[in-house]
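Hi everyone,

Forwarding the result from last night's run.
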Amino acid sequence: MKQIQITLTPRESKRIIAMGVKKLPVVQQALKKGIILITIGTTNAYVAEELTGRKIDHLRYCAGYIDGTAAVVPQEKRLPMIALKNGKEVSADNIINEMTSQDVIIKGANAIDPDGIAGVMLANPMGGTTGNITGPVMAKGINLVIPVGLEKSIPYSVIEISKRIGIQRCIKATGLPVGMASLAGKVITEVEALTLLGAEDVFPIGAGGVEGGEGSVTLCVIGEKAEEIFELVQKVKEKKGEL
């Protein structure tokens, strides 16, 4: 069986994850007949590019972000959420009311724990986007897809964190204080994405880097399509994860 090793920077990981998300059967089905709501987030900006074929301003297609502290993009600078209905862009306003269990919501995360549970930090006292979508997702059974890079792996339980922290429990913070909510959905990391792109086995073998490689992940990829995947990764690296 063919084996390759690849290192992906966070930007490159986001592109590979986005390519994998596009391959998900529920996403493919919703592109043909259904609704896809892509909530704002930096990884989701890459997903939006893959699904729409157009360039998205990554720094404006997000709400919260980390730049050394926890921060948010001012409301007036944010881009609106993108919604697709039968593969065509439509207004995202109130579209969640139309969504059914055949449809897909794509929501990024800030953490992934050892059990594979994703968590999202909440800087909005009312829960922000997470607060708005959680009820309909759980009540209707809407497919929730969670693209998140392995760089966001943490060694502690997201469920336990969500019980222990909160905006009003924090007396000081480097940036905005946050709470946390767990997300119940299909998590897509680099591992799942590369599998969707044709790998038979994928596992991380290292993480981190310097000189622009901070946050990188190194993976072993096994399968008959290993060389094809290597070529795809090389193309992504040539463009530094951009379109």
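The chain has one domain: 3-238.

Cheers,
N.
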